[in-house]
């Protein structure tokens, strides 16, 4: 959620949420399917002090605007036209927006990507995928502007609504929401890739990766971003990501299982409109990284935040967030299991990341990254 700007993104077919007579208040969480308990009841893989420092440095949600360190190199395409097979699948259909009441834009998807991808395999030159495999994506994303009338947005595509100019809101919403004192955001995203591949020698290799992510309050409601003169203030908004990855550490080797959990709860976090603001301009996150909990504190938009984290057994980690070498650059190999880690961490960057307050772009990012991982699994370098 909260992440790189993906221009011209096309997605797969969507089962849209039908327009109904629910009140606008209920509309903010229309279509919810993820509860906070999914994250609070998880048992993540234990990290060492050094590992949690790496996890913190890799977390792009800690930025207001993360500088791009490169464009990344996408996986090679077997299609003579140069088209990536999964990109082609996603481009065949685009989701449409619906409006709940008059104030809430809503978009949903619950699709099986594997069926389409199988049809593209001859062009991709990939190995065979067993019938037991699955690759599914589901998401629900809502933006509410209290007091507005968004009904004219009905039927627009997901891609048409994703871009922003640094203000956080999609461009087409800025004028319609200009009189709202706050913006409410809500997103649930899940993808499940369980792939068994058979290589030319007949050997089977299984990789499984499931991501669950949400942007909501601790009771599962919509986050409220209160407008200020130069941005937004977020208080009590949670960004949570849970990933469970199982498979060989490389495409030949012993199977391992890793469960990673990140929960970031905002406390008077100041999100500036200025695209030059690298960091949040004050406030803090109450943070969970697997078995570590603590606080990440911001001073201003030009100073990296500091963190203090502790875990059972006397473990502790503290310091200043330092951008990792892979920050903003993405990865294209897909050979290591860690390449299939949390979608919040690794992206194919196409410019600066989108502000956190645009969950449409957040869902777009997760969809884009999921497709790249699928491609990397089926056609590893």
Textual characterization of the structure:
- The protein is an alpha+beta fold.
- Helices cover 17% and strands 31% of the residues.
- The protein contains eight helices and 15 strands.
- The chain has a 15-stranded antiparallel β-sheet that branches.
- Helix 4 (85-91) packs across helix 5 and helix 4 packs antiparallel against helix 8 (359-378).
List the SSEs and their pairings:
Blueprint: H1 24-27, H2 37-40, H3 49-58, H4 85-91, E1 98-100, E2 104-112, H5 113-124, E3 128-129, E4 134-144, H6 158-162, H7 171-174, E5 182-198, E6 204-216, E7 223-228, E8 231-234, E9 238-248, E10 255-267, E11 269-272, E12 283-289, E13 292-298, E14 306-311, E15 315-320, H8 359-378
Helix pairs in contact: 4-5, 4-8
Q: How many helical elements?
A: 8
In which range does the helix fraction lie?
10-25%
- What does the radius of gyration come to? 20 Å
* Percent range for β-strand residues: 25-35%
Succession of helices and strands: HHHHEEHEEHHEEEEEEEEEEEH
Task: Specify the overall morphology.
Answer: globular
Oligomeric state: single chain
Residue-averaged pLDDT, rounded?
A: 73
The span between the termini is 28 Å
Q: Which structural class fits the helix and strand makeup?
A: alpha+beta
**Spans with pLDDT under 50 lasting ≥5 residues?**
1-23, 70-81, 326-355, 373-381
The main β sheet shows up as: 15 strands, antiparallel
Task: Write down how many β-strands occur, each being a DSSP E stretch of 2 or more residues.
Answer: 15
């Amino acid at each position: 959620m909260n992440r790189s700007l993906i221009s011209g993104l096309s997605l797969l077919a969507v089962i849209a949420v039908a327009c109904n007579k629910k009140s606008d208040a209920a509309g903010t969480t229309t279509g919810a399917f993820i509860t906070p308990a999914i994250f609070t009841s998880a048992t993540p893989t234990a990290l060492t002090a050094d590992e949690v420092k790496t996890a913190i440095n890799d977390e792009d949600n800690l930025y207001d605007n993360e500088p791009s360190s490169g464009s990344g190199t996408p996986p090679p395409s077997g299609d003579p036209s140069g088209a990536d097979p999964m990109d082609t699948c996603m481009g065949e259909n685009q989701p449409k927006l619906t409006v709940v009441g008059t104030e809430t834009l809503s978009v949903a998807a619950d699709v099986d990507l594997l069926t389409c991808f199988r049809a593209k395999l001859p062009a991709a030159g990939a190995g065979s995928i067993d019938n037991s495999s699955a690759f599914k994506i589901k998401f629900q994303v809502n933006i509410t502007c209290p007091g507005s009338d968004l009904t004219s947005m009905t039927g627009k595509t997901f891609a048409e609504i994703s871009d922003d100019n640094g203000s956080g809101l999609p461009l087409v919403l800025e004028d319609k929401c200009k009189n709202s004192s706050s913006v409410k955001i809500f997103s649930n995203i899940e993808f499940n890739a369980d792939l068994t591949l058979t290589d030319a020698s007949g050997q089977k290799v299984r990789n499984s990766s499931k991501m669950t992510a949400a942007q909501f309050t601790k009771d599962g409601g919509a986050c409220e971003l209160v407008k200020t003169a130069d941005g937004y203030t977020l208080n009590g908004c949670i960004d949570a990501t849970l990933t469970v990855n199982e498979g060989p550490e490389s495409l030949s080797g012993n199977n391992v299982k890793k469960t990673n959990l990140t929960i970031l709860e905002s406390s008077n976090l100041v999100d500036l409109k200025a695209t030059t603001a690298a960091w949040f301009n004050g406030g803090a996150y109450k943070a969970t990284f697997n078995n570590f909990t603590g606080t990440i504190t911001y001073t201003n938009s030009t100073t990296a935040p500091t963190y203090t984290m502790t875990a059972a057994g006397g473990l502790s980690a503290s310091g200043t967030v330092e951008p990792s070498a892979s920050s903003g650059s993405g990865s294209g190999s897909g050979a290591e299991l860690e390449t299939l880690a949390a979608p919040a961490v690794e992206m194919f960057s196409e410019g600066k990341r989108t502000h956190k307050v645009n969950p449409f772009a957040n869902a777009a990012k997760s969809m884009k990254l999921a497709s790249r991982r699928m491609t990397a699994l089926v056609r590893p370098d």
